[in-house]
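Sharing in case it's useful to others searching the archive later.

Someone asked me privately for the predicted structure of Phosphatase NudJ, so I'm posting the question and my answer publicly. Question first, with the sequence:
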Amino acid sequence: MQWKPHATVAAIIEENGKFLLVEETTERGNRFNQPAGHLEDNETLLEAVIRETLEETAYTFEPTSLLGIYHWKHEHNDTTYLRFAYIGRVSQHQPELGLDDGIIRTVWMTMDEIRSNAMLMRSPQVITCIEDYLSGKHFPLSVITHL
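And my answer, the predicted structure tokens:
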């Protein structure tokens, strides 16, 4: 069997000092995460992060920059993830859409609230991405080429 990492996307969304997270069910209980998910076939990374954010939050996401690319091996299931994290803003909340399977709710949290709930984050990437965002890290969207 050939090893392959899982390509995922995540949306880093901050408004008035609070970050948009989703509470979701996992094999380890309820956890918090950025709106995130897997890249699907015939989809660009930008299309994936826009789709995942809409499915998990019922908000339209507009990516403005790439925060970074994160490599992480999950200690519980031995899966390796490559996470493409995008910074952007949301608009056009459409609560009638409902949320994706497994998503309990959306929640806006301050960094202090996120840190105080660190053990409830889905992965260490959640806090790392927000810390990178707060440090001013970002790259133009053009850094990734889709052919």
